[in-house]
Design brief:
The protein has helices at about 15-20, 40-45; strands at about 5, 25-30, 35, 55-60, 65-70. It is an alpha+beta fold and about 80 residues long. Strands 1, 2, 3, 4 and 5 form a 5-stranded antiparallel β-sheet that branches. About 15% of the residues lie in helices and about 30% in strands.
Amino acid sequence: TVGAVRVAQMETGTPAAQAGLAPGDIILKFDGEDISGVDDLHRLLTADRLGKKTKLNILRDGNVLSITAVPGGRD
């Protein structure tokens, strides 16, 4: 199944915002794994990934971009 996750909103100061993720971006891959929906993203955002650089492939304005994020916990 081909799918993705669209970023609906972004809180300032979060690890995703600091990595350059923006509302309207579509997450295609997370650390090399295809994302078919939000459940995939939740499954991949595990405690062992916190604080580690993670590559995201996103679609923005018709272009596929690669960004690096460092997932962090919420206070």
